[in-house]
Amino acid sequence: MTARGRGEATRREPVLERPESLFDIRLDARDRSAPPPVDPPRRAARAKAAKPSPEPKPAPAEPRRARADPPAKTKPARRRRRGSLLFGLIKWGLILGVWAVLALAGVIAWEASKLPPMQTLMIPKRPPTVTVQAADGKTLATRGDMGGVAVPIGELPPYLPKAFVAIEDQRFFSHFGLDPEGLARALVTNLTSRRLRQGGSTLTQQLAKNLFLTQERTASRKVQELVLALWLEHKFTKAEILDLYLNRVYFGAGAYGVEAAAQRYFGKSARQVTLAEAAMLAGLVNSPSRLAPTRNLKGAQARAGLVLAAMRQQGLITPEMASTALARPAQLSRAGMPDSSGYVADWVMDQLDSFVGEELPGDVTVRTTVDAGLQQAAEKALEDTLAKSGGKFGVGQGALVVLDTDGGVKALIGGRNYADSQYNRAVTARRQPGSAFKPFIYLTAIEHGLTPETVREDGPIQLKGWRPENSTHEYRGPVTLTQALALSLNTVSVRLTLEVGPKAVVATAKRLGIASPLDPNPSIALGTSEVSVLELAGAYVPFATGGIGVIPHVIDVVKGADGKVLYQRNISGPGRVMDPAYAAMMNHMMMETLASGTARRADLPGWEAAGKTGTSQDYRDAWFVGYTARYVTAVWLGNDDSSPTKKASGANLPVEIWSRVMKTAHQGVPVAELPGGLRSYGFGGAGYGAPGGSLLPPENLPDDRPPAVVGQMPPPPQPEQPMTIDRWFAETFLGAKRQ
């Protein structure tokens, strides 16, 4: 036993015993500074020291093991801490989830509160439809959004609704308005392709989006779309939703609803469409503006092929049905194809606001002055002539206008093909008329006292370095005004312009109906100021009416959907703009143009006709404006970029087109003489081309050609400056001449 052991065995703690004592000064385990685990081994050592025993084993090892025990006790503590952390995460996750659900519900409730009443959503609003009619009430074109009459789904061919389900929403009958599988597939496709290639919207969502909401792409609109889709699924059966969708969705070209689309594209009711036509209609809703068959027939047919493949794959049609439909793809009907009537309809829409106001009261019907049969004949005449001879003469475009003697537009062709170009060359384009402008010069000369028999010199002329010449560089010497106009002699035209003054010529043209700006300079004698086909035709009407001017117009009556007349034309023209005697003289001279001059190829048997050809510099424009006592027709040919043609002149292609159109226009029309024509003017004969009417032998008849011009055109005259003291002094004392 060690000394420490012996000392501890004989040690005695002092004891102060006082039974009634209120305090005890003895120390216990709680009063000691050592940790509790150390105390029991010490007491055990004291107990062992009191008993005789063999040599004891050293005791310090036991307290060391006691101090090494805490690491064994930390494993449950860590597990408790981990469990506590996991529990906290779950608890807060649930709390956040509940708040997220509440927030989402609040957002949905807020967006739903901003929607209008559901009953008002069932009547979708759309812009007014404008139906453009011919004079006989036949529909020429439709502008704006067209809503067809709703056709119950039970009256449609079974394959028509199936086509929409197959290509747009194959799980339509199983989902609740949203298609999670479709959304996931669309998300994966868009992420893998790194662009938006596929959408996950159901037919119900499309119905909500297309009918009830705007097309803006915002989070608010998507939430509203979700709310409406769920409401639709709750409110209606699947068949009713599909019925609403088919009768309201947009199909392009302004057609809303399957009935309007079938009428627009195929000229038939949706009840009668074939499988190929049904597939085309179903394919359009994916991109109606891009795939509308009126502008992209090939694209619409290709999309229809995808629809048929989807229907066959899903077992909605047999392989034989799919093969038959693919072999005969849907085609546009004649009524559905864009034709020249589109130019008329566009012009009507440009003017409609000025007649009925900017805000249309609803759907309106516009009855025009257009003759539908003549419109088609004019379109065919232009297209056939350009197809046959356009390449030979280097002509790519053309335009024409037919007016009656009241100024009503009976036909208007704004270009070779409306589907290819909607630019209206008859109304909007301005081109140089060339010699077709010369009648205004000769009328001005007659109003200044000259007559058709007045003689002027056809010879070289020079004006400050500018020398206009005839295209042949040949001169005939003294000629009458009748001869000069019929043969389109440039030198005589320039002499007359200088004689009466360019300003007087401009005033005459304006009085008769030219609205475009005209430069009052000597070159106006050669038709260098640009005009439109429509206004040039209108300015020729006073010759056909004996001096009564007109305002070209196309709108006759405008009615609302209830039949109420919103506008009816009762405006007269400008009245008399030319003395009847002068009109008779001009008609006599211009009849010779067809009898022996540049328009001798014109062909209208049995009718007195007159007119004037025109060809601008470098053969850029070819014109012919001709008329009878019933109609005036102006024809223009050229290229949009003003590039020269291959010697296309007013005497060839325009005259050919004019003859075809005017023959159609005069079918069944009672024959009438021109004011001051051959009979009334005293020259005799049954019409132009009568025996003895020719001024020159046939071999010497000229063609219409551009003028030959040498030198720079003289500048237009400057307006006279007001007299000032400085100017008066210079002119009076310095001899300066007035400019």
From TrEMBL:
Pathway: Cell wall biogenesis; peptidoglycan biosynthesis
Annotated family: In the C-terminal section; belongs to the transpeptidase family. In the N-terminal section; belongs to the glycosyltransferase 51 family.
Entry EC number(s): 2.4.99.28
Entry keyword Signal: no
SUPFAM superfamilies: beta-lactamase/transpeptidase-like (SSF56601), Lysozyme-like (SSF53955)
Record field: catalytic activity: [GlcNAc-(1->4)-Mur2Ac(oyl-L-Ala-gamma-D-Glu-L-Lys-D-Ala-D-Ala)](n)-di-trans,octa-cis-undecaprenyl diphosphate + beta-D-GlcNAc-(1->4)-Mur2Ac(oyl-L-Ala-gamma-D-Glu-L-Lys-D-Ala-D-Ala)-di-trans,octa-cis-undecaprenyl diphosphate = [GlcNAc-(1->4)-Mur2Ac(oyl-L-Ala-gamma-D-Glu-L-Lys-D-Ala-D-Ala)](n+1)-di-trans,octa-cis-undecaprenyl diphosphate + di-trans,octa-cis-undecaprenyl diphosphate + H(+)
Entry keywords, A to Z: Carboxypeptidase, Glycosyltransferase, Hydrolase, Membrane, Multifunctional enzyme, Protease, Transferase, Transmembrane, Transmembrane helix
Region: Disordered, residue numbers: 1-80, 692-723
UniProt domain Glycosyl transferase family: residue ranges: 149-311
Chain intervals with Basic and acidic residues compositional bias: 1-33, 62-72
Domain Penicillin-binding protein transpeptidase: 398-641
Upper classification of the organism: Bacteria, Pseudomonadati, Pseudomonadota, Alphaproteobacteria, Hyphomicrobiales
InterPro entries: Beta-lactam/transpept-like (IPR012338), Glyco_trans_51 (IPR001264), Glycosyltr_51/Transpeptidase (IPR050396), Lysozyme-like_dom_sf (IPR023346), PBP_transglycosylase (IPR036950), PCN-bd_Tpept (IPR001460)
Pfam family, one: Transgly
Official protein name in the record: peptidoglycan glycosyltransferase
Transmembrane regions: 85-110
